[in-house]
Amino acid sequence: AFGSHTDGNQELLPCEVCGRRFAADVLERHGPICRKLFNKKRKPFNSLKQRLQGTDIPIVRKAPQSKPQPVRRSNWRQQHEDFINAIRSAKQCTLAIKEGRPLPPPPPPTINPDYIQCPYCMRRFNETAANRHINFCKDQSSRRVFDPAQTAAKLASRGQAKAQMHPKKEPTVTSAVGALLQNRALGAPNVAPTRPGELE
């Protein structure tokens, strides 16, 4: 009905490329064209370039995407164990408070493997803070040598010097209390002081 080349009894054959069905003589013409179109790779349509074409506005190229940073291995197992230990410790403390027993010792601190240790002061920081701190600590250590034992000795010697300069004073008593104690020592110790309102 749509063309003289198609009869109701004529068999339609599918195209190997697009799968549409055609008569044998039409398929011979369609096949090479269909293969050519499907094999040709079309460039993606750039709407910005099309809009700016013919204007004085320069086309800015997209900046190349930075390489994705390597994903660190998650320490979820250690974090989970630390969390469980903290909960157990809290339960033991609550139970000890209810029963009136002394509190159990706190769980030992765990070292986060993601933290970076400063080689100068041995403290640990995350990556961003470590980059800032290590440069600062290196500069400080080059200015003055920091020795923990030496610093402790200096603090102890300062404490001793301060104690010698300001010895502890014995508590002073007022003159009235001193006189009362002296009278008791010299006078009759067995005589009890009279209270106001008592009959002599």
Automatic annotation (TrEMBL):
It comes from Gulo gulo. It comes from the Eukaryota. InterPro entries: ZC2HC1A/B-like, Znf_C2HC_C3H. It holds the Pfam family zf-C2HC_2. This is C2HC/C3H-type domain-containing protein. The keyword Nuclease does not apply. The keyword Metal-binding applies. One of its GO terms (molecular function) is zinc ion binding. Residues 11-40, 114-143 form the C2HC/C3H-type domain. Keywords: Metal-binding, Repeat, Zinc, Zinc-finger.
